FtsK/SpoIIIE family protein (Bifidobacterium reuteri DSM 23975), 813 residues
Amino acid sequence: MATLNVAGRIALGREGLPVDAVGRGNIWLEEDYGPRTVQIAQEIMLKSLLGTDPGELELVVFDYNLRGVAAPFAGLQADHLLRVLITEKELGDYCVKLEQHIHGVHTVIQGRQRSLLDFRRATGKRVESYILVVITADMYMLNDHTKELMSILMAAGPAAGVTFLIVSPTPDDASVMFLSNKCHVITTNTSLTPNVSANTIIDSCADLAERFSKSTMDPVLFEDVCDTSPQAMWTGNSSDGVTFDVGMYGLETTRVTIGSNREQLHNALITGAVGQGKSNLIAVILHSLCQRYSPRELELYLLDFKEGVTLRQYANIDHQDYLPHVRALGLESDVEFGMAVLQHLYAVYQRRMRLFKRHSCQNIKQYRESTGAVVSRIVVVIDEFQMMLDDKSMARDVVAMLSKSTRLFRAAGIHFILASQTIASGIELSKDSDIFAQTPIRIAHRNSIRESEATLGLGNTAAADLHMGQAIVNLDYGAIASNRKVAVAWADDAVLSRLRRNWWIHARDFTRPPYVYDGTKVIRLDAASAEMLATRGGRPELFVGERISVGGSSLKLDFGEDSGRNMAVFGAGEEQFDDADIDVDEVTGIGPGATDDASDADADAQDEEHVNNAIGLLQNAAIALALRNTKGNAQFIVCDLTDADAAKRNDMNGFYQFMESIGFPVQRVEGKALGAVVNDLADSLTSRTADDDLVYLIGFGLDKVADMPKSFGKLVKDGPAKGVHVLGWWMKTSVFESHVGFGNNGYFDIKIMLRLDEREVQRQLGPFTAWKPRANRALVADSTYLSEPVTVIPYTPVNLETRRRITSALFGY
Ligand SMILES: Nc1ncnc2c1ncn2[C@@H]1O[C@H](COP(=O)(O)OP(=O)(O)OP(=O)(O)O)[C@@H](O)[C@H]1O
C-alpha cells in the first residue's frame, strides 16, 4: 500500500512559523535582496520535498533575479525532480503546460473531492503528483500576459497539487496585488530565523535521490487493469474491433478499442525514449488482447527491428509452448521481411475483401454479423518501425506500402500498432504523411519535446514531462485536449508467462507455432530435405535458400535439360577478414595432428561467421541434384580452385564423402586439367544420346583460370539442352564474361549475386536492379523462371549434422 505523505503544512525557521504549502496554498516571500530571503525560500523548498514521498513532488524554478535559489538542489536534476527555467519565454511556455496539467488533474478527480490532496487521501492512491513552482523575480516586471496566466494558475493551482512560491518585493504594490493576495505573504518584517544550511540541503537532496531510486514504484499491476481470471479468458468477440488495456488514468482503467466501426480508431502509434517503458506497454497490450480473445478471434504478427529479445519468448524456441495467437514473429527483422509481411497481409486483405463482397458486405463487422462466421481480427505490431525506412533506396516503397496498409486493411480487420523511439527525424513520416493520418491512437512515453510534438502534434509537448512508466494516451490524433496521462500497467513476466502457458495448453490442438524469422539465423539444406525428397525422381532442381516470406518457403529452381540452365554465382562468398593472423587450425578447430577426415571433425569446426556462401550454394546445388536423381544417371565433376583454408572451413572433404555416400562420387579435376575437361565435354556434345549420364561441371573460384578454352562458350551454349550443365563461382563478373566469350553471357539463366558492387550486379541483371550486399543474403535471378530477382537467405555449406539429417530422411536411419 502506498504511503501518501505530503508536506501540506510546514513549520518554518527556528520560530516554527506554520505555513500552508504543497497542495494547500501559495506563498509570497517578500524580497529584500539579503541572504536571509534566499535561505527561507530554500527552507520552504527543502521542507516541502522532505515532507512529501520521494518522487511525488517536482520542483520547478525560475530564478529570474539570479538568487541561486536552486543551486543546492542540483542533485535532484538527474531524476527529473528539479526543472530549471531560464528565460521568461520558458516560464510562459511552462505556464501553458501547467494549465493543461491542472485541467488533467480536474478530469481525473471529476469533482469527487475538493482537491488532489483530499482525493488521494480518500482513495489511498498515488494519483497524479505535486509541483512546487518557485519564482524569484520582481513580479511587476513580468509581462502582463504571463501575470494574467499566473493569476489563474495561482488561484486554481493548490487544489490541483500545484503550489507557487514567489520571491518578489512589494507584495502590496497595486500592479501585483492580484497575485500576492492569492498567497500567504511572509514580509521582511516577519520574525523568522532560517535554520537549514546549504550543506544540509545538498546532503538531504543526495539522500532523497537515493531514497527515490530505491523506492518501490508501487506500479499499477497488470491484474489491476486486465481480468486474468480463467472465467474471463477468451470471452471477447472481435466483430467490432479489439480492446486492449493500458493502465490507470486516475481511478479509471484506460482501455483502447482498435478497429471499431463506431470509434473509427484503426491504427496506433507508440513512442518513447529508451528505457521509458515501450516494451513493457507492448507486452501489456499483447497479453490483455490474448487474454480477452481466443486465437480464432485474434491473430498477431509481431516484428521487432531491434534485437528481438522480448519476442523470442512468444515462440517455441528452447521450450515447447508458444503464444498461440501469433502467426509470424520477426526477431531481428529486416526491411525485406517487413515488406514480405505487408505483402502477405495484402494477400489476406484481398482474399477477405473478395469473400465479403460475395456476401454483399463491405467490411469484417458486416460480414460477421450477416453470416455468423468467425473471421479473426489481425493486429500487426512493428517495434522500431522507423528502421524500415533506414535504407533510403527502399524507404519510398516502404512508406507507400505502409500507407496503403494502414489505409486499406482496416476493412478486412487488419490493424497496426507502430512503435518507435524516434520519429521526429523521419521526413517520410512527417505529420502530413498518410501513415500519421491513418493512425489516430497516439501513445507517448517520456521523450524530448521534439519527439513529443512529432508523436502528438505541434504544441503538444506533454510527453516531455512524464516519468518512466507513464504515457500520454491520446485517441484524437494528438489533440491537446484529449491528452490523458496514464500510469501504464506493469507487465510482470511471472504473471504473463503463466497466462501464456495456459493459453497454449488450451490452443495447442488447433494452432501451429508461429513462423519465426530471424534475419541472422544460419539455414542449411536439411531445412528443405522433406520437400526435396517428396518429389524425388522428378525434374532436377536446385535448392538455393529460404525466401524472405511469411512461412519461409525454399527457393528451388528447375534445372532440367533446357538451353540456358547453367548457374553462375558472383562475388565474395564471405566477408573479407584479415586472415593473416588467423591460424586455420584455430578457426576450424582441427588441430595439426587431427585426422584428415574432416567430415567428422567439421561439426563444430565450421565457424558460422566464416562459412562461404558461394561454396555453400554450389555444394547444396550438387547435393540437391544428386538427391533427387533416382536413376543414378548423373556425373559430378568438381574443380575446386579455392585455397586450402576455405576448403577446410567449408568442409569440402565432408561434401565429397557425402556425395559418395548417396551414390554420386565426385570426379575431381585439378585447375590445370580443367581446360582439357571443358574441351572434351564440348566435343562430346554432338555425339551425346539420351542414354548418356547427365553431367554437372562445378567450378569453385573460377577467377583463377587464366586460360579458359574457347570451347567453354560452346559448352554453356549447347550443353544444357544435351544434359551437360555448368555451375560456377566467379568473384568478378568481368572474368566470367571473358570465360564465356562474347554473346554467351545469356546462356546462364541463373545468376546469384553475393558480395559485389552494385554496378557489376546491374551489368548482369539490368540497370534498375538494387542490391546492397549483406551477410547471409543472396540475390537470385533466373531469367526463365523468376519475373524479378529474389533475395534469399542462402543455405550455408553442409556440416556433419546437416548430412546426418539428410541421410536419415533419405534412408530412414
Ligand atoms: N509501467 C511500468 N511500471 C513499472 N515499471 C516500469 C513500467 N514500464 C517500464 N518499467 C521499468 O522500466 C524498465 C524499462 O522498460 P522497457 O524495457 O519497457 O523500456 P523501453 O522503452 O522498451 O526501453 P528500450 O527502448 O530500451 O527497450 C523496465 O525494465 C521496468 O523496470
Remarks:
- Residues 217, 219, 272, 274-280, 421, 468-469, 488, 490 surround adenosine-5'-triphosphate (CB under 6 Å).
- The longest strand covers residues 242-249.
